[in-house]
Amino acid sequence: MEISLYLKRPTASQETVIFARITYEGYSFKYYLPEKIKPKYWSKEMQRGKQIKQFPQYPEFNQRLQNIITGIEYVFRKYVNDSKELPAPETFKQLLDQEVKKKVSEKERQNSFFGYFQDLIQQSISGTRRHPRTSKPISKGTIKNYTSALNHLTEFQKTRKKRIEFKNIDLDFYNDYTEFLIKKLKLSSNTIGKDIQVIKMIMNDATERGINTNLSYKSKRFITIREKSDNIYLKEYEIKEFEDLDLSNDTRLERVRDLFLIGCYTGLRYSDFSILRPDQINDGFIETTQIKTGEPVVIPIHPTVKRILEKYNGILPASISNQNTNVYLKEVGQKVNCLKSTFSKTITKGGLTITQNFEKWELLCTHTARRSFASNEYLAGTPTITIMAITGHKTEKAFLRYIKLTPNEHAKLLKLQWQKRFALKAV
């Protein structure tokens, strides 16, 4: 059986009805769906709503279409299995009216797994749902993770022909779903982990509201997969060579480089150090409130930061987008000789361990500055609790997982501590 979706009036300026062309073994007929859309938001090629900013409800809309298609397929299979013959079009239409167009109360829709998930995404987009710890709006990155997980679950339901409801989110589902993500979608371990984390968040939220009573997701075997990522940080001598690079003939790259150095010596995120204002700098300290966490932070001004501030008369150059900054950073990094060393990244994707080699400058991004600050301060012997007060890590375990130190660097750090200890004894 083939199901293709079309618009009744594809050139209309207002919403128009969507119909399905259902074809199977000698039969073909139209079936009008209980969904409408403006033609400008419709993708003829994808037969779905366009994934564009002007149509922010596309995840929920496309999910409803997918649910309808799944329902059509279910009706067809059930009839064939029960009667051992193909349904005539009129019979099929009557059965579809009962299944697809049945009245579902708004409460029932909200209490379904997908309905609840879709509403949560919409509330996050609109800002009515806030982060439970910080009360800040849900970030675009987090919403992107939600939408990605929803799309994967939709594909899983379609491919495996298994309806997903709160009651069947159990260990069998977990095993089937992770296998699907590994073997079918060939996703990396950390991407799979994000999906599981989102599912557990949905289940927790629904449980707290009394909508879900299935607690199988709390099993120790319902784990969030995590793989330590190989991300770079710049060592002090690399930052120094980066800083000494003469870019006076290219103000575009010079400004990007200087802003990056601010991040290396403050530990702030790009969203914070790229918008520093003169009134946030007082008596040798930077005082700001972090955008992501809403937490205040006070940071002493490093000599390099002081020099850059003086260079721009206390007003840092206007920042550009994070994406473009990352592109320009790589352009700067390519000019730094010590960043042409080879760096290997290893990830597990599609169940296979893949190692790729890069020159270090190829992996530069704005977040490298923050990670460099944390790693270098730790290596210098700055107390972990002091670094965490600036980076915002809540636990030492999370902080140590964040910084990127090799076994050799850990050995050097231990040696440094021994030298300090022996020096004190000698006094």
Q: What do you see in this structure?
A:
The protein has 427 residues and is an alpha+beta fold. It folds into three domains: 1-102, no CATH class; 103-227, DNA polymerase, domain 1, CATH 1.10.150; 236-426, hpI Integrase, Chain A. It is 49% helix and 14% strand. It has helices at residues 58-83, 89-99, 106-111, 113-126, 140-160, 171-184, 189-208, 236-244, 251-264, 270-273, 303-311, 322-333, 366-379, 384-391, 396-402, 407-426; strands spanning 2-7, 16-24, 27-37, 42-43, 48-49, 281-282, 285-289, 296-300, 342-349, 352-359. A three-stranded antiparallel beta sheet has the order 1-2-3, with helices on one face. A three-stranded antiparallel beta sheet has the order 6-7-8, with no helix packed on it. Helix 1 (58-83) crosses helix 2 and helix 9 (251-264) packs across helix 12 (322-333). The longest helix has 26 residues, at 58-83. The chain is elongated.
Helices and strands, with pairings:
Elements: E1 2-7, E2 16-24, E3 27-37, E4 42-43, E5 48-49, H1 58-83, H2 89-99, H3 106-111, H4 113-126, H5 140-160, H6 171-184, H7 189-208, H8 236-244, H9 251-264, H10 270-273, E6 281-282, E7 285-289, E8 296-300, H11 303-311, H12 322-333, E9 342-349, E10 352-359, H13 366-379, H14 384-391, H15 396-402, H16 407-426
Antiparallel strand pairs: 1-2, 2-3, 4-5, 6-7, 7-8, 9-10
Helix pairs in contact: 1-2, 1-5, 4-5, 5-7, 9-12, 9-13, 13-14
